C-alpha cells in the first residue's frame, strides 16, 4: 500500500480549533460556513477561504481630504460629547471630532456611554475609520469600524481583506483566523517545473498564500494577481493530473465492442411523438460508433434544458440491448429517477425492452425481483439512484452506464458504476451548458456531443422580474392563470421560515397560497419522506393540484407539460445556472409560458445583472458564459471529484493558455513518471493531497 498523506500537510488538515482563538462556539460557525458532511472545518478550509474583497483603510491627510461616501480613515481630536436628550430616548449619542480642516460627527445608536467616554475622552487624539457620509450638509460617520489610539496605528492594516461570513463570525475575527491559517502553511516541496515558475514569475506556494491573505492593495484582494494565478494553476494542475490518471485507468482495461442491428432503435424512433432533431441524430450516431469500437466509450452529452438528451440515452441503451447486453441510467435524485422510469417505460415497452427501477426505497420482494432480473439478464435497462452503487447489485452483462447530471456525482462514482461490468461504456449527460474552456477543465477525459437545438414546437418563455412589493399582483396573476387552465410552480429558497434570512419559506408560502386557492395548492420539498414527495409530484402531474409550492428539488428533470407558469421567489438569491434550470421546467407543452422572478430590492450589481440576462435570453450556453463572468469562483469540479462541485481557487476567468499548460504538463508528467515516484512526482503527490483529488490518490495507492 502506498503511503498516506505526507506529514508535512498535517498542520493544514488539523481542525480549525487548532488555531489560536477558535473555541467550540466559533468552530461550530466555521463548520456551517466551511465544513461539509464528511468533516468539520479544518485549517486548510480557512487557507483556501480567500478574501472576496478589501477595504482601503489608508489614512487621508486631513478630514477635508477624506472621501465622502466611502470608507475613510483620518486622525482627529475629540472635542465634544452630545448625549441624546432625555425626552428622545431613541435619539443617538454623538461625539464631535475635528482637525484644522473640519469636523466629523460620530453617531452611535443604543450607545454604551461609559465605554464611549473611555474610548473617546475629550481632548484625546484618535484614528477613526469607517464610512463617511453627508447628513444635512455635515460630515458624519455612523458607528465607526475602528477607533484607535495613535500608538496602535501599526495594528490597522492599510488594506483590510473582506471574507465571506456566516452568523456568529465577524469580519475582524475571520480576518484574524484566516491570517492564522496562512501562518500555519509550511514550506512545501515545489511541484512546479522551475522553468515554468521563472517564466510566469510565480512565487513559492507558501508566499502566494500569504500574499492572498495579506493584500497590499484592492487589486491584490479582488483582481488577477501573480499570487492568485499561482494557486489557481496549482489547482488546475491537480485536477488535470487527476483526469490524466483516470484516462490511464480507463485505457488499462480493454474495451469491448457492442454492436446492434438497429431494430430496437427503429422501433423506438417510430413510437416517438416527435421527429428527432439533427443534433440528436448526430449524437446517436457518435455514441453508436463509440460503442461498436473495441475501446471503452467515455462521452459527454451536453444539451440545454429540453434539448432531448433522455431520448438519445434511450437509443444508446437500446443499442446495448440489441447486442443482448444491459444498461443502467443513474439519476441524482429519487424524484428524477422515478420520472425517467415513467417516461421511458412506454417507449421501452413498444420496443420489447424490460425496464426496472431501483432506488434506496425499493424493499422486500420487489427489490429482490429487480436484483434477480439484473443478475440473470431478464432486465435490459435499470433506472436508479446511488443505490446502483451498492455491492449487492450485480449485472448479467452490463454494457452501458448513463450518468445523468454528472456534476451531482463525480469521477470516483463514475468509476464505481463502470466497474459493475466488463469494459462498461460511459455516457454522461448534463443539462447545465458549459463553455468550451470550462468543459476542457471539467470533462477533460471525455469526448463531447452537443445538442444545441430544441425539439420542434417548443414556444419561447416570457421572463419578467418583479419586486416582491407587488406580491399581491403576482398572486392575482396566478389566479387568472389557474382560471385559464394553467398549472403553476412556485419556488422558494427555504423549507421553513428562517430567523437569520429574510426569505420566503416553502411551508409558509404553501399555507398562504392554500388560504387563497384551497386544495389546488400542493407542497414539495427535500425534507419530505420519499412517498410523500412521490404523492405530491403525482398529484401535480395529474392536475389534481394546480399550484406546486416547492424548493429547488424540482430543478432537474421534472416534466409536467401543462405547467406554464413559474414563480421564483427571492430570485436574487439564486445563481444564473439554477434560475435557468428552474425556468426549464415550463415551456414543455403547447401553451405560452411565463416565468416571474420575484426579487427583494435594492439589488446588488451582480444580482441585477443575473436577472437582466434571464430576461434577455433563453440560450443556456450564453447564460453559462455570463454566469462564469459574474460569479468569479464557480462550481466547476468536485474538490474531491466525488460529488462536491466547488472550485476553491481557480476562477473561470483563468485564460485558456494557463489551462492548456496544466493539461499538457499533466499528460507529460504521467507519461514520464506513471506512479509519481521521482522527486517532482513525490511533490505532485503532496499537491494532490493538498487539493483533495481523492480519485487520483486512490488510483496511485492502488498502483
From TrEMBL:
GO molecular function, one term: DNA binding
CDD domains per record: DEXHc_RecG, RecG_wedge_OBF
Record-linked InterPro entries: DEAD/DEAH_box_helicase_dom (IPR011545), Helicase_ATP-bd (IPR014001), Helicase_C-like (IPR001650), NA-bd_OB-fold (IPR012340), P-loop_NTPase (IPR027417), RecG/Mfd (IPR047112), RecG_dom3_C (IPR045562)
UniProt KW Membrane keyword: no
Occurrences of domain Helicase ATP-binding (ranges): 290-451
Superkingdom of origin organism: Bacteria
Any single GO BP term: DNA repair
NCBIfam families in the record: PRK10917.1-2, PRK10917.1-3, PRK10917.2-2
Protein name according to UniProt: ATP-dependent DNA helicase RecG
